[in-house]
Design a protein that fits this description.
about 425 residues; D-Amino Acid Oxidase, Chain A, domain 2; eight-stranded mixed sheet; six-stranded mixed sheet; about 30% helix; binds flavin-adenine dinucleotide; FAD-bd
Length: about 425
C-alpha cells in the first residue's frame, strides 16, 4: 500500500485530495503487465500493478505459449506450471482441396521446448496471477489510469472505477501495459503508425467432431481466404469431453466453410475483429515505457501477440535490474519492428485476398515449404526463436538485420 491517507478498511480518508509517492507503477494486469511484475519480483522489486477491470478476462484469446516464452519463464518455475496445464502442439498441417499440401514440425527446431504449448490465455493469466499472489503482489483492481497530462514525468492520475476516488501518483517509472487502446500511449502523444484491414476476421471456440489431429495446428487454404484451426486447452478438461477448437478465418461465418468438421456443441466464444499492424514510434516517452499490445499490434498469424509482449516485459525487467532503462527503446524497437513487419508479410500471403498472392500461396508456398530454409524461417517466427534471448549476454545482442529500424532515436528518456 502507498502513503496515501487510508481508513482501516483501506478506503481513502480524502478521496479527492490524494497525492502519493508510489513504487514503480504497472498500468494493466493483462499477461504482459503480470509477466513484468513476475520478472521484477525475481529481481527483488515490488511494483504496484493496477487494472481498471473488476475481474480478469475469461476469454481464451491467445491460444499458444511459444518456446521463447517457456524459456523466459523457466527460471521462475512458471514454465513448469504452464506445461502441467497445456498440451503440446507438434506442428502445422496445411490443407487445400481436401488434401494435405505441406507440413512443418517443431521437432526440427532442435530446442529443449520443440513444440508450441496450447493453453488458453485465460489459463496463462491465471498461472501468472497465482504466481504474483504467492509473491505478495496484489493486483489493485478497478483502478483506472485517466487522462494524465504529466504522465511522461511519472505523474499518473488514477480513479477508482466505482467510488470515483482519485489518486495522483508519482512513480520513478511507469510501465504502460494497458493494451491496444492504451490511454498511456495517448496521454504522451506517441504516434502509433500502421494499417488496419477492412475485412473483419471472425473466430469461434466450438466443440467439433473432426479427423484433424488435435496435436497440430491446421491451416485450410480456400479459394478466397483461409481458415485456421487449433484446439483450445485450459487445463480443466474432463475425460471424455469433446475437444474445443478455435476456428478462425477471414469470412463472416468461418464455420460455414468448414465442410470436414461438425460442431457438436455450442460456441463458447465468438468474436469479430479487425487486424492491425502497428508499432509505437518510441518505446518510451520520459518515464513511461510501453510493452505488449500498447506498443505493437499484429495479426494472430505467427501466434506472437502475447508472447512478444512477454518478451518486452522480460527485457524491461532486466534493464530495470541493471539500471539501464535508457536502452529500452534501442533494445526493443528493432526487434518488435522486425517481427511486426514479418508477420504483416506472412499474413498478406495467408489471407489470400489478392489474385497474385493467392496464386503464390496456393501453388508456390506449399512447394517452398519443402525447402529447409523456408521451413526454418516459418518455425523460428512462430516459436519466437528468430533472434537470441535478448540481453542474455552482458553486451547488447545485434537486432535482427532484415528490416531497418525506422527510428534510431536513443536515450529518449533523458
Ligand atoms: C479476439 C482476440 C483474439 C486473439 N487471438 C490471439 C491469438 O490467437 N494469438 C495471440 O498471440 N494473440 C491473440 N490475441 C492478442 C492477445 O490477446 C494480446 O496480444 C494480449 O492480450 C496482449 O496482452 P497485454 O497484456 O499487452 O494487453 P491486454 O491483454 O489487452 O491487457 C491490458 C490490460 O490493461 C487494462 N487496462 C486498459 N486500460 C487501462 C487503464 N486506463 N487503466 C488501468 N488498466 C487498464 C485492461 O483492463 C487489461 O486487463 C487476440 C486478441 C483478441 C482480442
Amino acid at each position: 500500500m502507498n502513503s496515501c491517507f487510508h481508513r482501516e478498511d483501506g478506503s481513502h480518508l480524502f478521496p479527492n485530495l490524494c497525492m502519493t509517492h508510489s513504487p514503480p507503477l504497472i498500468i494493466g494486469a493483462g499477461p504482459v503487465g503480470m509477466a513484468a511484475a513476475a520478472f521484477l519480483s525475481r529481481h527483488g522489486m515490488t511494483p504496484r500493478i493496477v487494472d481498471k477491470r473488476a475481474e480478469p478476462s475469461k476469454n481464451s484469446k491467445a491460444l499458444a505459449v511459444n518456446p521463447r516464452t517457456l524459456e523466459l519463464f523457466e527460471a521462475s518455475g512458471i514454465t513448469d506450471k504452464l506445461l502441467a496445464l497445456g498440451r503440446k502442439i507438434h506442428g502445422t498441417t496445411i490443407h487445400r482441396n481436401g488434401r494435405i499440401v505441406a507440413e512443418v514440425n517443431f521437432e526440427e527446431l532442435e530446442h529443449r521446448f520443440p513444440f508450441m504449448l496450447a493453453l488458453s490465455q485465460a489459463a496463462t493469466e491465471r498461472v501468472l496471477r497465482e504466481d504474483l499472489a504467492e509473491r505478495g503482489i496484489e493486483i489493485e483492481r478497478q483502478l483506472e489510469l485517466v487522462d494524465s497530462p504529466k504522465l511522461a514525468e511519472g505523474k499518473a492520475e488514477l480513479v477508482h472505477v466505482e467510488t470515483q476516488a482519485n489518486e495522483s501518483v508519482t512513480a520513478p517509472w511507469i510501465l504502460a501495459s494497458d493494451g491496444a487502446h492504451s490511454l498511456a500511449r495517448k496521454s504522451v502523444h506517441v504516434p502509433f503508425p500502421g494499417d488496419t484491414y477492412d475485412r473483419a476476421w471472425v473466430l469461434d471456440d466450438i466443440p467439433l467432431a473432426t479427423d484433424f489431429a488435435p496435436d497440430r495446428a491446421h491451416i485450410k487454404l480456400q479459394d478466397d481466404g483461409f481458415l485456421f484451426l487449433l484446439p483450445v486447452f485450459t487445463g480443466e478438461e474432463k475425460p471424455g469431453e469433446p475437444t474445443l477448437w478455435r476456428v478462425l478465418g477471414n469470412y463472416p461465418e468461418p464455420l460455414a466453410q468448414l465442410t470436414e468438421c461438425t460442431p457438436i456443441g455450442e460456441s463458447q466464444w465468438n468474436s469479430s475483429f479487425h487486424i492491425a499492424h502497428r508499432l509505437v514510434e518510441a518505446m518510451n516517452v520520459g518515464k513511461v515505457y510501453f510493452a505488449g499490445d500498447a506498443a505493437h499490434l499484429h495479426s494472430p498469424v505467427g501466434a506472437r501477440g502475447m508472447n512478444l509482449g512477454i518478451e518486452d516485459a522480460w527485457v524491461f525487467a532486466e534493464l530495470v535490474k541493471r539500471n539501464e532503462l535508457s536502452l529500452y527503446h534501442q533494445q526493443r524497437w528493432p526487434v518488435d519492428n522486425a517481427i511486426v513487419q514479418r508477420i504483416r508479410t506472412m499474413t498478406g500471403f495467408v489471407k489470400g485476398e489478392s489474385f497474385i498472392k493467392r496464386m503464390l500461396r496456393n501453388f508456390l508456398a506449399p512447394k517452398m515449404l519443402h525447402w529447409k530454409s523456408v521451413r526454418e524461417t516459418m518455425l523460428k517466427t512462430v516459436s519466437g526463436l528468430d533472434h537470441p534471448v535478448p540481453l542474455f549476454s552482458t553486451e547488447s545482442e545485434e537486432p535482427p538485420t532484415e528490416e531497418k529500424p525506422r527510428s534510431r532515436r536513443r536515450d529518449r528518456d533523458r
